[in-house]
Design a protein that fits this description.
Elements (H helix, E strand, L loop, with lengths): L9 E2 L5 H14 L3 E3 L7 H11 L7 E6 L9 H12 L4 E6 L10 H13 L3 E7 L3 H11 L6 E5 L7 H9 L3 E5 L11 H10 L3 H11 L3 E2 L6 H8 L8 H8 L19
Parallel strand pairs: 1-2, 2-3, 3-4, 4-5, 5-6, 6-7, 7-8
Helix pairs in contact: 1-2, 1-9, 2-3, 4-5, 7-8
C-alpha cells in the first residue's frame, strides 16, 4: 500500500444523509484519518461532501470503499468503482474491497480479483482487498492475484466472535485484518468482564475492547453518530492492556456472529 492505513478508522455503516455528513465531519475534526464506506451503504456522496467541506488535503485521509455483490463481474466492477469515485468526489480511493463474495459463487473470485487489480493498475484505487472472505475464499483470492496484492480482509471481529482461524491464516500470508463490528453492536459495552477491566483502567468499555483488538494488530472501524463517542474511541490507541486483561477478553469467545445475511458464504466457524 502506498499510504499506510491508520489502525483506527471511522465506519459509516447505517449512516444516512446529514447524519453521515456530520459523523464524518466530526471524525475528521477530531483527528480520524481513515474513513470507511461502501457502495451498498448509500452514503458515498455524503462522505465525499464531508471530505470536501473539511478542506483537508486528499492525501491526508485514507478512504476505503467496497464493491457490492451485483458489481463483481469484470464488466461491471470498474464502471461501478468509477461511479463511486464520482460520488466521493475523488480521482482515486486508497483501498477498494470486494464487500462480500459473490452469492452462490455466481462470479468467480478470480474474475473479481483480477478486475480489482486492473482498477489498481488504472489508478482508480491505491490498494485492493477483500471482506467477509473465509479461508477457502482467501485461498482463491491469493491464487488469483497473489497475497502481496491483498491489503486486508475486513471481517466481523469482536470479543464474542474472534475469527481466530481466519485471522491466523491471514497473518500467515501477510494479509492485514480489519475488524468491523468491533463492539458487537454495543453488546460488549455491558459485558461484566470488560466493565471490570474498564473500571480498573479508568477507561470506557469501548476503549478497552478497541485496545484489545489493536493489541492483536488489527485495524478497527467503529462508527458513531455521537462526537463524544468518536473522540473516546480514537483515544483507545493510548490504552495498554496487561496480559491478564487480554487473556480475560480472549476467554469471551463464543462464536456469536451478528452479521450473516442469507447470501453469506459458508463460514469457517
Amino acid at each position: 500500500m502506498n499510504k499506510h492505513m491508520p489502525h483506527i478508522g471511522a465506519g459509516t455503516f447505517r449512516l444516512q444523509g446529514q447524519q453521515a455528513i456530520d459523523s464524518v465531519a466530526n471524525a475528521l475534526d477530531l483527528g480520524y484519518r481513515h474513513i470507511d464506506t461502501a457502495q451498498i451503504y448509500g452514503n458515498e456522496a455524503e462522505v465525499g461532501q464531508a471530505l470536501q467541506d473539511s478542506g483537508m488535503p486528499r492525501g491526508e485521509v485514507f478512504v476505503t470503499t467496497k464493491i457490492w455483490t451485483e458489481n463483481l463481474s469484470s464488466a461491471a466492477l470498474i464502471p461501478s468503482l468509477e461511479e463511486s469515485l464520482r460520488k466521493l468526489r475523488m480521482e482515486t480511493v486508497d483501498l477498494t474491497l470486494i464487500h462480500w463474495p459473490s452469492p452462490g459463487a455466481g462470479v468467480p473470485v478470480a474474475e473479481s480479483m483480477r478486475a480489482l487489480l486492473e482498477a489498481r493498475e488504472r489508478g482508480l484505487t491505491r490498494a485492493i482487498g477483500i471482506s467477509n472472505f473465509t479461508i477457502p475464499l482467501m485461498v482463491e483470492a491469493i491464487d488469483a492475484v497473489g497475497a502481496q496484492n491483498i491489503a486486508t480482509n475486513q471481517v466481523e471481529l469482536h470479543p464474542y466472535l474472534q475469527n481466530r482461524a481466519v485471522a491466523a491464516f491471514a497473518r500467515e500470508h501477510g494479509i492485514h485484518v480489519t475488524a468491523y463490528m468491533p463492539l458487537a453492536y454495543g453488546k460488549v459495552l455491558n459485558d461484566p468482564v470488560i466493565l471490570g477491566i474498564a473500571e480498573r483502567m479508568e477507561a470506557t468499555p469501548a476503549q478497552v475492547t478497541l485496545a484489545w483488538l489493536l493489541d492483536k494488530g488489527y485495524a478497527v472501524i467503529p462508527s458513531s453518530t455521537r462526537r463524544a463517542n468518536l473522540e473516546s474511541n480514537l483515544a483507545s490507541n493510548r490504552i495498554a492492556l496487561d496480559a491478564d486483561a487480554i487473556a480475560a477478553i480472549d476467554a469471551l469467545e463464543r462464536g456469536e456472529r451478528l452479521v450473516s445475511p442469507d447470501f453469506a458464504p459458508e463460514w469457517d466457524e
